[in-house]
Fold this protein.
Amino acid sequence: MEYQRFIASKVNWLTDPLNRLASWAGDGDCCQWEGVVCNNVTGHVQELNLRSFPPPLLKYFSIEAQYEAAIQSYAQAMFGGKINPSLLDLKHLFYLDLSYNNFGLFPIPEFLGSLKSLRYLNLFSAGFGELIPPQIGNLSNLHYLNHGGFGYNFLFANNLQWLSSLPLLRVLDLSGVDLSNAFDLLEVTNKITSLSELWLSHCSLGFIPPTPNTNFSSLATLDLSFNSFENALIPSWVFGYQNLVALNLSANGFQGPIPIGLQNMTSLKHLDLSANNFNSSIPNWLYSFSHLRFLNLSKNLLQGTITSSIRIASITFIFDISKDQTCSREQIHKGKFGPKIHDPNPKMAT
């Protein structure tokens, strides 16, 4: 069957420290094996889930030694090795998840671009390195593509023209990928009219040439956090995406007043402007964002008072008075904004 050479070669390429794939042995029904999902009718392997687990977070440990022990356990649980071309024997595979592993900074295999049935490819924090192979652009059926990682990873791309061959793409995560030389980013992603989520945090974005027309009518989520944009100004093209539901512009060193260009983005439910150098008062138009449920203005240099009209039902309002010294403490101490809770999820909820 299609899976036999792939399964037989598993021991030759996949390191499995905890023997999580002990079921991958013998001549039994592979559809019962860990991480394998088959079509109920044909028996073809359709999904392969070889993800490990997200790393532990320091903030959840009161003792540093416990955190270090958790990190060691985490490192020992990851799959590793080198991806074998026998994966190509799975002709009907449409779902492949290799996230949270350690593939030793080997390049992403070019032959992954031959898995033409793939609709879902998740390589988030998988430990790959070097250039993202343009052969990924051959996966014209992809709906979900994740090359991201926590903070900066070891992947880079000098151009993204291959993305224009993915017309069905809905979710694209390149967080942590070095895109400092990918000046065609906006030009290319603008052509993917189906795109609903675009994650670009920690991408070393300095300057992105704008395009005269934008087709991001379907874009709901945009994350541009932790970049260093030229002139410390929010790129003007961001304001054209008026259907956004979630926008993260945190930790970019943006300066000056909160830009008026945001005022037409009234569909926003999640807005994060934290860790910048905005120095104005909170503009009146922001209070009219009736859909807003998460607003983070912490770690800025905001001035003035906060009107009570910002009391929107169920909103999570994050405002760090230790940094914003010139804002009125009275409004905040009265508890009108609810508890100061930071979202533990690294992704924005839409």
